[in-house]
Amino acid sequence: MLKKLSPEEELDFLKEIYGSNDNAKLFSALKEAFSLLQTRAQMLLGLATICLTITGFSGPRMAASNGWSRFFIGFGLTFVLLSVMALVAGPLRLRWMTAWKAEDVEQTLLLHLRQRNLRTTYYRIAMFLLLVGLTGYLFSLLFFLLSVE
């Protein structure tokens, strides 16, 4: 059974994998994690951008069709924008790994692990908010389609 590791335990585990004296490999592993998080955040941002673009084209027509459609498109738009805010505040925030140093290399690696975990939390929040927003869009579309004669 897998166990969720604290940043300290994770650093010890990474040292087991890469060797306790190979700081370059440890930093490289963290760099890859930040890169993956950045890529996934960009994917969510792209999806949010598509939602906002669709709103610009069909949103006014859907919102004019009935009150429920208007409510849900506003609801969806709000949550999509909140998702974008979480992405910008978290995983898409630019911060160079080599520009931040703690007392020693081990403390610096722990700082980066904590930063990665925080950004991952922001990513998960953004993903949840985007899913709620997309659900709002879906309901808006359903009420729009039900009102079309």
Q: What is this structure's SSE topology?
A:
Layout: H1 7-18, H2 23-65, H3 67-89, H4 105-147
Output mean pLDDT: 91
The biggest beta sheet, please? none
SS-based structural class? mainly alpha
Reading the helices and strands in chain order gives HHHH
Strand content: under 5%
Helix % is: over 70%
Number of beta-strand segments: 0
- The oligomerization state is single chain
Question: What is the count of structural domains?
Answer: 1
Separation, N- and C-terminal Cα atoms: 56 Å
Number of contiguous helices: 4
**What would you report as the Rg, rounded to the nearest angstrom?**
21 Å
Overall, the morphology is elongated
> Which regions contain 5 or more consecutive residues with pLDDT less than 50?
none
Written overview of the protein:
This protein has helices at 7-18, 23-65, 67-89, 105-147. The protein is mostly helical. The protein has one domain (27-147). α2 packs parallel to α4 (105-147). The longest helix has 43 residues, at 23-65. The model has no long low-confidence stretch (mean pLDDT 91).
